[in-house]
Amino acid sequence: MTEAWIRPLVEAIHSSPTQAVLYLSGGASQALGCLMSVPGATNTVLEAVVPYSRMSMIQLLGKIPTHYCSQQTAQEMALLAYNRALKLSSPGSPVLGVGFTGSLASTRPKLGDHRFLVFIGPNSRFYLSTRTSDRLWVSTVTLSKGLRNREQEDAISSHLLLKVCNIHMDLSIMSYVASKLALIAVSETFWKCFLHGNVWKAIANACKVQATFVSHLTESDVSDDCEERFTEDEELEQLINGQICFKGLRNREQEDAISSHLLLKAIANACKVQATFVSHLTESDVSDDCEERFTEDEELEQLINGQICFKVYPFSNVTHASKEERKIILSGSFNPLHEGHLKLLEVATSICGNGYPCFEISAVNADKPPLSVSQIKDRVKQFEKFGKTVIISNQPFFYKKAELFPGSSFVIGADTAARLINPKYYDGDYGKMIDILTGCKRTGCTFLVGGRNVDGVFKVLEDFNVPEMLKDMFISIPAELFRMDISSTEIRKSQGC
């Protein structure tokens, strides 16, 4: 962390409440070092993943991307990181997903911007995207091509494509030469030799590589080599006159530093942090930023469509609650929310001893149409009135909720418990039921069961035959602590709904 402005920027990021997941590929690695080396990283970084190999990227995205280094890929990485951050964050904390994919200076041949080998002199380009609850921000940065103008680049690429199949040389030398070509100035010797077909000899000479070459020229062929060397002053004059477009390429470390600085700036912006930022981009570098903001309605539409996994409305007025990692969740439709719901969650929280109490509504129902945006917002208003946090998810099944909220305690009624341990709801397959509930158990989730009227009879957990291997996952709420014979259905009927 050599630059003085970086540390204050990172400290400001760590002091914000925003928690982030970062997915980075092909650059910006120094940003991770900056974030992790300044005290307070645990306040910001939930997880950082580097899907560097193609297979790693495919597994992250769940598909083969059209282009590994593209704006679309960066946006998809940011959305995945955002959903991951939702799952890992403290309840109620603002979260950030960061996606970065780049193609920076490399020592290995690869496909580049103009569809020829990048080691011939490509643009170094990277894409950076951040996603918060209401904003998608994307930046595309194309760094200067470096030493060669378009004409020279086009000539090299065209000639190599034509000549490479006819040249016989040691592949280890070719690989080494190729890795060096992007870092050297092409001398007059190169062009003279190129026209006579001694392309690899020319490249090797320019790279100052010592190697044995077999000439295929005959006595009747004429080879006339010449060389002109340039001083630094002459090279600078050529740059001023437009003969060359850039003096000196950035190396990988320098490009990584630039991408890391821009990544830190993006995180600071998403965290709404005011800090000094020093840009090292030149006039010939190209930076293209764009931003898309989402309304609450648009965010809820994304949730219903499965683009994001849940949205938290942190209405709770409990100041220390956000530090609790475990959630105590009472799921339901809450149509309407009533005193029984509030009391049940209060009692369950006292039994658990610690945890963040919240309600949860699934916008997607297993056997009914999904809730509309207006229906969701109407139900959310009930919780705002009572100062209670509510989560809107898109998972109607408890085994999916367990994956979404690992380590949580779900508060359920005896009627729901009866369905959970009834093979009828698992296609009549007892083994399938055990497998699914064992999967819930592996996530660290438990079920707190309150008494409830079932077919006109008040029942508690002890009235049901819970399989032995699952008994420690179910905890009974004593009837003397909670019993309230009221339901949302009865309230709706009494209101004529």
User: Helix fraction?
Assistant: 25-40%
- What is the global morphology? elongated
Biggest sheet record: 7 strands, mixed
| Tally of alpha and pi helices | 18
CATH architecture level-2 label of the largest domain: 3-Layer(aba) Sandwich
Low-confidence stretches: 109-122, 147-218, 220-227
Beta-strand level of the residues, as a percent range? 15-25%
Count of strand segments: 15
Organism: Jatropha curcas (Barbados nut)
GO molecular function: ATP hydrolysis activity; nicotinamide-nucleotide adenylyltransferase activity
Protein name: Cytidyltransferase-like domain-containing protein
Domain Cytidyltransferase-like: 330-493
How does this model look, in words?
The protein has 497 residues and is of the alpha/beta class. It has 18 helices and 15 strands. It has helices at residues 6-15, 29-37, 41-44, 54-61, 71-88, 150-163, 171-181, 188-195, 199-206, 232-240, 252-270, 296-304, 339-352, 373-386, 398-404, 414-420, 430-442, 488-494, and strands at residues 19-25, 45-49, 95-103, 125-132, 135-142, 286-293, 310-313, 327-331, 356-362, 390-393, 409-413, 446-450, 452-454, 457-459, 474-476. The strands form three sheets. The protein has a seven-stranded mixed beta sheet. Strands 2-1-3-4-5-6 form a six-stranded mixed beta sheet. Helix 1 (6-15) packs parallel to helix 11 (252-270), helix 7 crosses helix 9 (199-206) and helix 8 (188-195) runs antiparallel to helix 9. The chain is elongated and about 95 Å long.
